[in-house]
């Protein structure tokens, strides 16, 4: 009868040194206990758990990692000298998702098509809901992106933060300048980004939106949500 051997993996801990010693003793005890007690049949084979070198059970303190969060999007100098407004949390999340989609497609840059996908992946903003309701969905945008721009080389790896294309940069700059021109308080929303994409006529994002039935009339309707990303209702 065949014998299947499994190694017991070492366990990492986030506790203090004193807790580590106590856990080490406990793990050593459990290891010997399981080696003696856990013998059974599994699909006709004998299950045997063998201990590794006890040095492998030395508990190591895991270093904490610090996540870098972008609180602003890359833009050129705004046309106005006024204080630059902040981006909403959903706008930032949409941009992060855009970079991720560009990397998934293995594109060297984050274009307007990726910004559009980022808006739809984030999905909770009024702009994203409006786009979906009007036929601009993530899967349709992905399909049109591949038709328009093609697939990247399978052996190419995108940078961690693919730089913006010129049209994508124009779209974000439009969003900032439009907010400044309004003279209103508040944040730059996802709607600003969506309309920024639409404003760059030569961009892939604009062409894809147009192909999926988005037009200037719908852009005017979408503009009604420029001052907020979500509508709160109280019952």
Description of the structure:
The protein has 235 residues and is mostly helical. It is built from nine helices and three strands, in the order E-H-E-E-H-H-H-H-H-H-H-H. It has a three-stranded mixed sheet with strand order 1-3-2. Strand 2 and strand 3 form a beta hairpin. Helix 2 crosses helix 3 and helix 5 packs across helix 8. It is globular, with a radius of gyration of 26 Å. The termini are far apart. The N terminus is likely disordered.
Note the topology.
Layout: E1 3-7, H1 17-37, E2 39-42, E3 45-50, H2 89-104, H3 112-122, H4 126-133, H5 138-149, H6 166-182, H7 190-199, H8 204-211, H9 216-222
Parallel strand pairs: 1-3
Antiparallel strand pairs: 2-3
Helix pairs in contact: 2-3, 3-4, 3-5, 3-7, 3-8, 5-8, 6-7
Question: Characteristics of this structure?
Answer:
disordered N terminus; 235 residues; 47% helix
Structure summary:
With 235 residues, the chain is mainly α. It contains nine helices and three strands, in the order E-H-E-E-H-H-H-H-H-H-H-H.
What is the structural class? mainly alpha
Major β-sheet annotation: 3 strands, mixed
The CA-CA distance between the termini, in Å, is 67 Å
Shape: globular
């Amino acid at each position: 009868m065949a014998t299947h051997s499994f190694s017991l993996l070492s366990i990492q801990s986030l506790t203090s040194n004193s807790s580590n010693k106590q856990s080490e003793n406990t793990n050593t005890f459990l290891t010997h206990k399981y080696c003696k007690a856990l013998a059974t049949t599994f699909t006709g084979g004998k299950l045997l758990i063998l201990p590794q070198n006890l040095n492998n059970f030395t508990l190591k303190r895991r270093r904490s990692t610090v996540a870098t969060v972008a609180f602003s999007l890359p833009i050129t100098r705004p046309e106005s000298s006024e204080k630059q407004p902040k981006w909403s949390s959903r706008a930032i999340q949409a941009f992060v998702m855009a970079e991720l989609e560009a990397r998934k497609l293995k594109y060297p840059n984050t274009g307007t098509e990726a910004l559009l996908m980022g808006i739809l992946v984030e999905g909770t903003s009024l702009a994203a809901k409006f786009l979906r309701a009007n036929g601009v969905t993530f899967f349709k945008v992905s399909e049109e992106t591949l038709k328009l721009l093609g697939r990247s080389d399978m052996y190419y790896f995108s940078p961690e933060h693919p730089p913006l294309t010129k049209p994508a940069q124009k779209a974000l700059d439009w969003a900032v300048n439009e907010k400044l021109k309004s003279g209103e308080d508040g944040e730059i929303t996802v709607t600003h980004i969506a309309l920024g994409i639409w404003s760059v006529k030569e961009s892939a994002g604009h062409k894809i939106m147009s192909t999926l039935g988005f037009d200037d009339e719908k852009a005017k309707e979408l503009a009604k949500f420029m001052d907020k990303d979500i509508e709160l209702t109280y019952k």
